[in-house]
Each structure stands twice: as structure tokens, then as C-alpha cells.
Amino acid sequence: MADTSTDITTVACVGAGVIGGGWAAHFLARGYRVRAWDPAPDAEAKLRRIVDGAWPALTELGLADGASRDNLTVLPTLAEAVDGAGFVQESAPEDLDLKRTLLADIDAVTPSDVVIASSTSGFPMTDMATTAANPARLVVGHPFNPPYLIPLVEVVGGEKSERWAVEQASAFYRHVGKSVITMDRELPGFIANRLQEALWREALHMVAEGEATVEQIDTAITDGPGLRWPVHGPCLTFHLAGGEGGMAHMLDHFGPSLEAPWTRLTAPDLTKQLRDDMVAGCESEADGRSIAELVAERDRAVIAVQRAVAESRGRADG
Amino acid sequence: MADTSTDITTVACVGAGVIGGGWAAHFLARGYRVRAWDPAPDAEAKLRRIVDGAWPALTELGLADGASRDNLTVLPTLAEAVDGAGFVQESAPEDLDLKRTLLADIDAVTPSDVVIASSTSGFPMTDMATTAANPARLVVGHPFNPPYLIPLVEVVGGEKSERWAVEQASAFYRHVGKSVITMDRELPGFIANRLQEALWREALHMVAEGEATVEQIDTAITDGPGLRWPVHGPCLTFHLAGGEGGMAHMLDHFGPSLEAPWTRLTAPDLTKQLRDDMVAGCESEADGRSIAELVAERDRAVIAVQRAVAESRGRADG
């Protein structure tokens, strides 16, 4: 099937809380018409507050030609919201039964060649698509809060999703400026939320046990590893922790720490295969950049990140 | 005991790999004399490469009066390295037996009123101080790579460490520009590494099982949650995920996800106490800033972080 993602002019946002409202703001800023529906009685006021709150940031980033908050219409019914939409983004609360029913309802009123994407934080589409009549075009399109600023969207289909729907969703998200990871297998929590959730659960355990305070946990990240993660990600970060020996040296040196009780999560066996896969993955990602070049890149970026955060806080106080 | 941290003019760096070398660069940039020792035959050349590699970043950040790479001396013996030092930073490989022996050796040649801090990534000092004659002044001072850029240092004593040593180490690190978390109890991996290690182990599991590639994992963080973590930390980030209801709404809404298989790490029971502690911690950290104000702060900062990283990469390519 041809890529029709560039023909889309109207997006339906079903569910208009923090995530649905953030999506609406993003699509509006990219010049789309947005038709929204949410069953909550105060939904429209809340949605417009979210969009208004996002607009200064989106204006700062640069609006697309024709972008306007006037292109947002809140409709009284689901059927009216999806009418004329070339893409549907569902962002309902994280409740499996609710998602099943809602996706079946959206499916029933939406032409079968329109992709319906769910913002679910972690349910596999196979589990959500059980009651929809046309599951072929149902996919996960998982964003990060706020969807109008954080580029990542994870796209993955369920057992009954067809390849064209996964491809069209990925192409559409890329077209609207997103960084897309298209997964070829379902995994609860996808990729980023599995990583983030492991950290979050360790944090909750620590607070529950009185091992650290909320503030210590946040400072530990904002003033520590959090400064590196926008730059290189956890694997490439540790590639640099190995010094001139890179990931290979790092795993050979810190490998024994995997058996230490540094977190409640037990580690996998550091087999030769896993070691080699990590080393090869880092070398592929480094794409010819030496450790020294990556260190220089990281240093420039970490300084710039620190300054950016400090200046933003200064402006907040000022 | 009076705070003598401002009287220190010379620091001994024992172990001169990536971490020890990074510490040396930081102390040099802050105007200290650094005396280094490392048993590796090529240690001095490697150390000077690390310092030279760090110097452009440190110059960009602004050197202290009198700061110079000429203030680095590499000594042939441990005893000579600690001679005249007002603070000792040990950064040997992460091996418990090695650390025990080395800390006892450092202890034997260093005046007993000088604090000796270990850069260990996760060993409690109680486990490392078993063979030292004067464990009172042995503390953990755990930095993050690179120590010359990432502000966080976690300070914690062992059972035999005395309070003055913990306080003096904390004061000294603050004096040299660090963000210090002083912990009042020992915990393997301290705080930041427990959080980081949980994420890292989940990543290793995913690669081991073929669930994600190294590159997908890094992109999931750099283009996703990694953009928020220098700004607000994991707790305050999720305070904003709850919309106008904050952490309370977030836990009430996403609480059930804690039972979902989103990571291999099982979650703690979300007791009323834990829920209330998380809510109170976020409110304390927010320090009067409304959700709307925090959202505006985050939005400004995330845009600035993205631009900073993009520009740093642009300079790397150019």
C-alpha cells in the first residue's frame, strides 16, 4: 500500500487528558485539524487549558504553516470526532477493559482504511484488540509526556494488526516530527517504559523501605546519570565508562557487579553472547566515532544540557 | 571539629583510570595540586590523556585562579602520592579484596586526620574498611563519570566511620562545586546506581532475550524519558504525568500498572503510606510551584536540552 501519511489533514484525538491533550497540541502545532472527544463533563475546558499551556513551547519551537488553536474542535460524540479524520489517536485511561471496549467502539465508526493508534503505556495490542471487528488497522503508538515535546513514539502491532497499518502509523508519526521505534514483537511496557519502570520500581522500593527520600532520588538523577541520558543513552554511556577499552572493558571490569545487590532486579547471565552483542551494538551505534570523539561530544553536550536546565530554572524564578 | 575543607590545597588521587583521572582533572581545574599514583606501567601517559581530554570542557566551564595541568604530579609510590595531601580520593578497580587491601595501605601512610574517600560504585564502606587500622576517616565519595562534569557525589560512611569524616568529605565536595547527597545509612549501590542499575539490568535482559537492540534501547532513552530526567528527576516527572491531580492522581491512575509485567522487577505494595510519602515528597520538592508552573519549567528546559544536544552533535559532525 502506498504511503498515504502525507495526505492526512485531520486527526481525531479520543480521550483528552494529559496525553490526549498533549497529542492534540502537537497535531495542531503541525498544522492539522484536530477533532477531539472525551466523555468527561469538563473535558473541553481541561483540553483547552492543556493546549494553551503547551502553545508557548510550541510557538518557540516554530509552528507549521496554518497552525492554529482554532483548528481544534471538541465533538459531543465519538462518531462525530472520527468523522473525516485520516488518523485516530486513542488516549484513554490505562484500563484494559475500558481500552478493549473503546477501541471496538472507535473501530465501529471509523472507515476501515484509517489507522487507529493507542497511546497505551504498556498493554500489547493483542490484548486490547479482542473485541474490535477490524483489528487489522489497530496499532500501538505510545508517546511520552508531553507528546508535543518528547519525540519518541513506540509503534507495534498486535497479532491481528496488518503490516500496512504499522508502516503507515510509523510513517505518519515521522511525518509529524516524531522519533519512531517500530518494534517487531509485542512486549508489555514496550522498550522505554520497561527501562523507566525498572528505575521507578526501584525508587518506590527505596522510599517504601526508608532507604532514600523522594528528593534524594530526584537529585540523584537530575545531578547524576540524568545529565548523560539525553546525550548517549545507557549503553553508549557505559561504552565510555570503559575508558579506551569501551563496552568490552566495561563489561569485563564491572561484570561482577551484576551479581552484587545493587538493585532488587537480578541480572541476566553475562554470557559471551550477551557480552559480544553489547559490544557490537555499541560499535555499530558509535558509527566510527572513537571513544575520544564520543567523550568530547558527551562533554560538550553535558555542559550545554546543564546550562540549558539552569537557564530554564532561572527564567522560571525570574 | 571545625570545617577544614577550605584549607585543603592538595589532593591525592590513588588510581588513575577513567574515574581517578576524571577526579584529577576536576581538582586541577578547581586550582588544586594533585598527586597521583597508579600501579599500571602506562598509568601516567593514560592519566595525562584523560586530563588533556577533559581540559577543553573544563576551560569552557571556567578554570579557578591558578588552575593548571602543571599542578599534576604522578608519583612512583603510594606513600609519596599522599605526602602533603589534605584529602585522598581512591579510585581503584571495582574489586572488594583489592579495595580492602588498598584502603588499608593508604590508611597506613596517611595522617589520621586526613579523610580518605573511595570512589567505589557500590561497596559499603563497612565491607571495605575491614583491614584498615584507622577506619574512622574512611568514607565513600561516589562520583559519576565524568567526575569533572557530572555534579553528583554520594557520601556515606561505614559502621566505623566517624561523623566528622562524613561531614568533612561532604563539605569538601561542596566546596569544589559538587552536588552532594549525604546518606545516613549504607546501601549497596547507594542511590543513583541502584536506580541506574535497575534500568541497566532490564536493558541487558532485553538484549539477552532479543527483545530490543542496543540502538533501540539508547534511542528509547535519548529521545524519550532521558530528555526529562536532567530537568525534574523520576518522581517530579511523574508528578506532572498526573495532570492537575499530580502524584496523587498518577499513583491512583497508574498504580495498577505496578502489577503489570512492564519490567522484570516486581513492585512494592502501593500501601497508603507509600502513596502518601510519594505525594508529600513531590509537594515538598515542588516547593509551592503549581503543576502549571512545573509544566512550563519542564517545557522550557526540555526544549533547551534538545537544542543543546542537537547543537553539540552538530559541532561534532562539523
List the helices and strands and how they pair.
The structure is a homodimer of 318-residue chains.
Chain A: E1 10-14, H1 18-29, E2 33-37, H2 43-61, E3 72-74, H3 78-82, E4 87-90, H4 96-109, E5 115-118, H5 125-128, E6 138-142, E7 152-157, H6 163-175, E8 179-182, H7 192-208, H8 214-222, H9 233-241, H10 246-254, H11 272-286, H12 291-317
Helix pairs in contact in A: 1-2, 9-10, 10-11
Descriptive account of the structure:
The structure is a homodimer of 318-residue chains. By secondary structure, the first copy, chain A, is of the alpha/beta class. Chain A has two domains: 5-182, NAD(P)-binding Rossmann-like Domain (Rossmann fold, 3-Layer(aba) Sandwich); 224-310, no CATH class. Chain A contains twelve helices and eight strands. The first copy, chain A, has helices spanning 18-29, 43-61, 78-82, 96-109, 125-128, 163-175, 192-208, 214-222, 233-241, 246-254, 272-286, 291-317; strands spanning 10-14, 33-37, 72-74, 87-90, 115-118, 138-142, 152-157, 179-182. The first copy, chain A, has an eight-stranded mixed sheet with strand order 3-2-1-4-5-6-7-8, with helices on both faces. In chain A, helix 2 (43-61) links the parallel strand 2 (33-37) and strand 3. In chain A, helix 1 (18-29) crosses helix 2 (43-61) and helix 9 (233-241) crosses helix 10. The N and C termini of chain A lie far apart (53 Å). The mean pLDDT of chain A is 94. At the A-B interface, helix 2, helix 7, helix 8, helix 9 and helix 11 of A face helix 2, helix 7, helix 8, helix 9 and helix 11 of B.
